[in-house]
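agent: user wants the structure for DNA repair protein RadA from Nocardioides immobilis. delegating to structure tool.
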Amino acid sequence: MASTSRTLRPAASRATYRCSECGWATAKWVGRCGECQAWGSVAEVGVTPAGRTTATPVTTPAVPIGSVPADEAVHVASGVPELDRVLGGGLVPGAAVLLAGEPGVGKSTLLLEVAARTAARHQRTLYITGEESAAQVRLRADRTDAVHDELYLAAETDLGAVLTHIEDVRPRLVVVDSVQTIGASGVDGVPGGVTQVKEVAAALVRVAKTRGITVVLVGHVTKDGSIAGPRVLEHIVDVVLHFEGESGSRFRMVRAVKNRFGPVDEVGCFDLGPDGITAVTDPTGIFVERHHGRVAGTCVAVTMEGRRPLLAEVQSLVAPASQERPRRTTSGVDGSRLAMVLAVLQQHCGIGLGQRDVFASTVGGAKLTEPAADLALAIALASSHHLNPTPGGVVAMGEIGLSGELRRVRDVQQRLAEAARLGFELAVVPAEPGSPGSFRAVDGMRVVEAPDVRTALRLLHLDRALKVVESG
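agent: tool returned. relaying tokens verbatim.
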């Protein structure tokens, strides 16, 4: 009897689809990644059968961790103190830094200042511009006094040419403005595409690590404020910084989102003017208005930006409704927090603003997203409603609960010390358990503790509506 046999063959290579943002894989094409929810990031890649990986020679032998020199990764001051504050002490040799921000916020101006300060310390610096011509950068350098013999400038959009410039100049600091404008020959896609940005960033990071130089990359942001390009771009760099600022304000902030060499809860403050960008070591004066007398509808809040306390003035205006549906307009204040505070004032304090137009804003373009500003907002609303000015020299901090209680906030002592340093005389804070209404002193400033928002308004004599309700 003839026997039949089947020969087992290795499975053929099959195609799979992978997300360029997060690496998620699927057997069929989809328009939206199932992991990171990015649109249009899933593309076909070839998958070959698993092979056997053999051992290869190592680049450097493994050594005990105690014998690794730690002085090779020390911070070097950039010459801009506020940027050094965010970086944790300065730039680290061999590190790759990504600075992202909206167009026109001042990224190029800030990095040109950093490059000039570094060159002034006789450390050769290379500034690669892919968005402007060399003449345009020179004009900005003349305006901001950033011209130095050790600062080299090149206008390039090809990755190979950029690497050649680094080989020839041998700098200690390289600034690439921006990574989305540099293209790599032999790589699919156009400059700024996912594949191109990954290749350009990976090549520049390899140069930084092998040569021990600091590379700073400028990145674009999308309409929703996130960094443009693949998410892997943020993973391969060592530091990710966000440069923020309103178009109608000169105030700018640099915030660390990722930092392998320092904290991620620090912010740096800058003032962008016609003569360049300058560090603002005491930004409180920008966010606090100096009134000639007592004004109704204002109160100063103490918020934390990272580990830095900032004082910001909250202003409110309560007026009779001009339309059938009262308006609620905010600027710099969270609209949902305003709605909650209005409900608490009506339910627990007898201050009904349901038929009133309410406007709330901050001074200087400050954005108050921290719940610690709830109490200052409530005091400003009550003061405006009663046309009763808030006592002078008062700051307030505390989160308001739905039952009207005041909740403790973090870093109270640091906030109080900053308010006392700036000359404020009275601070209203949430009460410690078992000590409602107690008084104490901090650096010459009186501190009064209130268990709820109703008590806080009574202590500041802003409870005229409460007296009417109680007597009725």
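agent: one observation worth passing along. Residues 1-13, 465-472 have pLDDT under 50 and may be disordered.
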